[in-house]
Amino acid sequence: MAYLSMGESHRRITEFLNRFSDAVSYQNGVSFKSLFALSSNSHFLLSLADALSLFNDANRLINQNENFSQFADIIVPLFRSLQHYKQTNFVEAYNAFEKTANAFVQEFRNWESAWALEALFVIVYEIRVLAEKADRQLASNGKSPEKLKGAGSLLMKVFGILAGKGAKRVGALYVTCQLFKIYFKLGTVHLCRSVIRSIETARIFDFEEFPKRDKVTYMYYTGRLEVFNENFPSADYKLSYALKHCNPQHEANIRMILKYLIPVKLSIGILPNHGLLEKYNLLEYGNIVQALKRGDPRLLRCALQDHEDWFLRSGVYLVLEKIELQVYQRLVKKIYIIQKQRDPARAHQVKLEVIVKALKWLDIDMDVDEVECIMAILIYKNLVKGYFAHKSKVAVLSKQDPFPKLNGKPVNS
Amino acid sequence: MERERIQREKLRDLAVFERLNGNPAKSSQALAIKKFCRTISIKDVQASDMRPLNVLEDTLNYLLGFVDSKEHPFEVVHDFIFDRTRSIRQDLTMQNIVNKKAIYMYEGMVKFHVISHHKLWCSMGDPNIASMHHLNMEQLTKTLSSLFNLYEANRNSNDVHENEAEFHSLYVLLNLGSHSKPMGEPLSLWFSHVSTPILKSKEMCFARRIVRSFRLGNYINFFRTVAADASYLQYCIMEPYINEVRSLALSYINFGGYKLHPYPLFNLSKHLMIEETDLESLCHSCGLEIYTDEFGNKLLHTKQTSFIHPKGGFKKYSFLGLQDYDR
Fold first, then answer.
1. ipTM confidence score
2. Which of B176, B185, B189 to mutate to test the interface with A (most CBs of A within 10 A)?
3. Which strand ranges, in their side-by-side order, compose the sheet holding B290-292?
4. Distances in whole angstroms, Cα of residue B297 to Cα of each of A43, A273, B290
5. CB contact A267 to B (< 8 Å)
6. Which of A401, A395, A351, A354 is nearest to A377 (CA)?
7. How far is B30 from chain A (nearest CA, A)?
8. Among A4-18, A92-106, A135-149, B250-264, whose mean pLDDT is lowest?
9. Dihedral of the CA atoms A153, A154, A155, A160 (nearest 10)?
10. pLDDT surpassing 70 at residue A133
11. Residue B38 vs residue A324, higher pLDDT
12. What's the mean pLDDT in B171-182?
């Protein structure tokens, strides 16, 4: 590291303070926001951190000038946070930054226009990222991680301030999305409910007003919530919206959306083509799609096992398990088609023993009682039209449309 | 503790287990156990009020010894242990005791709540007991949550605590039933945070298989799996949902079965692992008529239009092969 003089340190600190007060005076949002972006590791802020450590008495500089002292509540903890951040004391960095954020929010309320919205976004983002780093550090030291939870409360407060009339309103969706990221990370997704209600049902916002990027992120997260709750039509709508409006060049984001949209589509009977899976590197779904096409329960089970970890971590495993019913439907349909070719008059009668045998060829050990059970389920859920005759151990299919298609609706409960 | 005991003796506020020779106004240092105090605040507490860890451990073991007591109705036993263990948890929290010993204690307390979940459920007709059952469920989920935090706090590299897998499986099984959302977090999201060694454990694989059968409606696989692999605690958690699966099976068979081939209850009772007489009773609760043929065989005619899911829940029925669990 090059030798840093007291004079140079003094200069750097004063430069920051001047930038700060100028930004406020001229309402320069772009310049302002760069002052808070700790985790961006900008040369400007990192070199400022060095200066602060050397100079040691920045508070005096702040207090001796009215232009700066009026923002002392914001700047003093910000300086502290920056120093801690440079020394990777993330817990202390977070605690200090939280103070800055609270003080900033107080000032923000007083500024009439929405000029400082971008800076607010940076602060909101940094709060989340710092809290995550702090929690990781706490956990690795055997302590209880609670900073992210605190960050959530703070962001809720910010959301409350933006939820009202006026130009600041359009920032609410960005804050919402940051909140979603926090709640998803903490697993406390039930807390999303109240913000979602504010955005969607309360008359405060017009959804179309929000920036496109935020709308896509919002639909992605709320779509994922619908997947967790297995509301497939709603999940389909939201994730499809996100897909449609996502910038086609953001391939990583498209992949994230598809990761959840594909299992949803599968659950309503719509299969992606293999090219799509290849393009976005989602080949984990490859054999699941094949299993559905072929009516092969063994292939489904293998696919679930092969990528078990990936499916579980993504939260789609339970959804994919349920697809087994559609796979059985396909299997029975194939048997029916083969029987139709051999003896059309009797094709609609499928002996349960035949299904047992077909499954045995697929290395699936199911006795006739379990096959009867599966047929009973398929009939009840309208995947098969017909009935099963217990005494003669036969499934009798309806002569008309015995295998109704899902047509975009999920399997009946 | 002296202070509290003397005060409660005066107020005759002594549980049956705390009475010296049955005297409702007299206890002893050995018998009296600290009650749970809802409104306690840190500044009111003195160091002498806090029981040290070894005292808490002994107290807990003493309390849990009453679970199998036949002297009093279970509700009385439950009420006593429920309150006094809550007080123990309060002492542990206030002293911030979070070591391995705390894990064993919390495991013991979760076990108590699980057994209560099962035993109280037998008397759900009584509204008092139904409310006890509900409150017990609350404490069950709270204590289980705290237990999971303790496992995390005591984590050494990738080690898994000896009972960790079973207690995780209990959480999974709490999510059975169409109206369950005990912890607020969707099961899919919860799974995504669980470590791989636990996910692949025998106990978790059991729980996952059960959840899968349940969600698919595969009653054959469900009952076979329960009969083959359920531990006592797992069975206790699942019991309220078992009859839900049975009634689901009845609705499937009633809907899709051929009208001219009535289903013999004898066969059905084997599939659903229930005594034939209990099955008949269950059918009646679901609005289904049972017919007897000329040989005395009981049959379920299908396509009955009167099927309903019983509103008030179910009576307690047998589980063939797991009669040991119904002590």
1. 0.89
2. B189
3. B263-264, B298-300, B290-292
4. 87, 54, 10
5. no
6. A395
7. 36
8. A135-149
9. 90
10. yes
11. A324
12. 77
pLDDT tops 70 at residue A413 = no
Task: For residues B219 and B263, give the distance between their C-alpha atoms in angstroms, rounded to a whole number.
Answer: 16
Rounded CA-CA distance A289/A292 in Å is: 5
- CB environment A119-128: b (16+ within 10 A), e (fewer): bbbbbbbbbb
Q: How far is the C-alpha of B178 from the C-alpha of B191, rounded, in Å?
A: 18
Shortest Cα–Cα distance, B183 to chain A (Å)? 10
Rounded CA gap, B140 and B116, in Å? 10
> CA torsion angle for A223, A227, A228, A231 (degrees, to 10)?
100
Given this model, what pLDDT does residue A34 score? 94
Tokens of A386: 């017909």
Q: Contacts of residue A387 in chain B, CB cutoff 8 Å?
A: 256-258
Q: Which of A323, A380, A396 to mutate to test the interface with B (most CBs of B within 10 A)?
A: A380
In this prediction the pTM is 0.89
- The whole-number pLDDT of residue A128 equals 98
Question: Per the CB < 8 Å rule, is B185 touching A227?
Answer: no
> For the segment B84-139, what is each residue's pLDDT rounded down to a tens digit?
999 999 888 888 888 889 999 999 999 999 999 988 887 777 888 888 998 999 99
| CB contact at 8 A, A395 and A350 | yes
Interface of B with A (CB under 8 A): 149, 152-153, 184-194, 196, 199, 211-212, 215-221, 249, 251-253, 255-258, 260-263, 271
pLDDT in tens, A81-124: 999 999 999 999 999 999 999 999 999 998 888 999 999 999 99
Cβ contact A318–B190 (<8 Å): no
**Pick from A65-69, A199-203, B112-116, B143-147: least confident:** A199-203
How distant, in Å, are the alpha carbons of A65, A319, A325 from that of A267? 65, 8, 10
Q: Which residues of A touch B255 (CB under 8 A)?
A: 376, 379-380
| A377 neighbourhood in chain B, CB within 8 Å | 216-218, 252
The percent of residues in chain A predicted with pLDDT above 90, rounded, is 84
For residues A134 and A111, give the distance between their C-alpha atoms in angstroms, rounded to a whole number: 31
Give yes or no for a contact between A115 and A96, defined as CB atoms under 8 angstroms apart. Answer: no
Residues of A in contact with B258 (CB under 8 A): 387-391, 396
| d(CA B26, nearest CA chain A) in Å | 43
Q: Is the pLDDT of residue B182 over 70?
A: no
B260 to chain A: nearest residue by CA? A389
- With left for phi above 0 and alpha for psi between -120 and 50, is residue A411 left, alpha or beta? beta
What is B190-201 written as a DSSP string? HHHHS-HHHHTS
On the question of pLDDT at A219 being above 60, the answer is: yes
How distant is the Cα of A330 from the closest Cα of chain B, in angstroms?
Answer: 16
Note whether A388 and A372 are within 8 A (CB): yes
| Residue among A139, A370, A376 minimizing CB distance to B256 | A376
